[in-house]
TrEMBL record:
Transcription regulation is among the record's keywords: yes
One Pfam family per UniProt: FCD
Protein's UniProt keywords contain ATP-binding: no
Sorted UniProt keywords: DNA-binding, Transcription, Transcription regulation
SMART domains in alphabetical order: FCD, HTH_GNTR
Domain of life: Bacteria
SUPFAM superfamilies linked: GntR ligand-binding domain-like (SSF48008), Winged helix' DNA-binding domain (SSF46785)
Signal peptide, first to last residue: none
GO molecular function, one term: DNA-binding transcription factor activity
Protein name as catalogued: GntR family transcriptional regulator
Amino acid sequence: MSLREKILSLELPPGTPLSENETSQQFQVSRTPVRESFMRLAQEGLVQVLPQRGTFVSLIDTALVEEARFMREHLECAVIELACTEFPADALRQLEMNLAQQQVSIRLEDEDAMFELDQSYHRILFEGCGKSYTWNALSQLTVHLNRSRRLKLAADHNWQHLYEQHREMADAIIARDAEKGRRIMKHHLTLNITDQAVLKEQYPHYYKD
């Protein structure tokens, strides 16, 4: 697992101090690539370098979480409308397989698998609509939102409603009901607004003031 993945998965929680020496030993590389990695992660907003204090995993910025949610809501509502107009049979089969795997993750309470399946589900929607580049670009701008989503999955294992919303999206695509698809997607993504207030109260030390 890369340093970036450790940060995104919360294995390295927000606020964790990072040492070039320790990181280079852990990954068995010299300090130069570690320093370069810190710089790239800082550009992504995942690492913060504080002069005279050191390097730390960035705290979650609620303003950036909301901005990312805003982007996802508007882009994904547009994408599901496209999917309800035309969606390849192979992509629909991938959604169905993904939904079956989500049910397994819920039974096992496997938060890592559930997060990856959630990500994959939305990626399939974009790919099925010929918008892979848009998904890839969006993914680079949602790192604070993704850490917040991981935290939510870890804090609350009641994931059935996520599965049900994903199921309803697939049903809307099958029925070619764009209005229903957009409505479900919008509700699905606005849940993050409520989640932020709850998570910030539960984990205040993970969030930027």
